Amino acid sequence: MSAKFLESFGSKLAEQWVANLLTPAFVFWAGGAAAGLQRFGWKSASTWFSQKDESLLQIALLVGVFCLIVASAFVVQRFDLPVLRFLEGYWPRWLSPLRRWLIAREEKRSQRISDRWQELKKLQRLNPNQITTEQHDEMIQLDWQQHYLPLENQIMPTRLGNILRAAEQWPLEKYGLDAIVCWSRLWLLLPDAVKKDLQEARTDLNTAARVWLWSLLFIVWTIWAWWAAPVGIICAIFAYYYWALDAARNYGELIEATFDLHRHLLYQSLRWNLPPDPKVERCVGRDLTEYLWRGWGL
What confidence tens digit (pLDDT) does each residue in 195-237 have? Predict the structure, then answer.
């Protein structure tokens, strides 16, 4: 029975910890060990090992390393939400000048995207047969980029923040439902399959933020090895641009799709009549949001 238990425990450990939790921590401490060996040399470490009983040392070392990796992984995991909010652009007041400058830059980028899309759209309307394949593909790409940008007065200082802010705004723009107010209620009504997809998408986003933090922490090994800084910076850039942004898009699209397909559950559970006409649904949705947030007569 013990063998089966250990086998089951090992499979669960590999499934839940290794990919999402322990792997970044293991890479961090393995990099630190490599930097330490480069700084102090293998000879010093081998001399220290030779002075101890080999079997006891191996057991103690394995237990100690495992405990260190697990403990550090769980500590860093506690910072998933603060790190994610930092990457979105929710910064302390003393960073306000930088935040304003980045918001202005993102507003200019949003305006460039909008202007170019309008230009191509006008060209397509006037001469539908004259628009080239490259221009058509560019127009599609610009349309997708606009989809991941919030309203002009809601621009965030970072790409990640804009993607998630846009996902929050779409239910309000389409249905009058404030995603922040309604989400906790709607979540309790969703089918298990939908919850699973949303949880997996959010886990992927949290893991990307966690890897970004581990990458920055990796720079500390520069005190022993010069290569730790470029490795940490490159990994942080990869985690943000090639992981976190894609994960945020996927998560945002699932949130939007959830409101598109399952918002009726919120109306039914609260005994509100679902508006038959999409033209008036925004007004009814705003009333429902106000009711959930403040109640009647408040």
Answer: 999 999 999 999 999 999 999 999 999 999 999 999 999 999 9
* Structure tokens that stand for 272 in this block: 């509100």
Write the pLDDT tens digit of every residue in 108-148: 999 999 999 999 888 888 887 778 888 889 899 999 999 99
Query: Which tokens sit at 236?
Result: 């942080």
Report the pLDDT value the prediction gives residue 208, as an integer from 0 to 100.
95
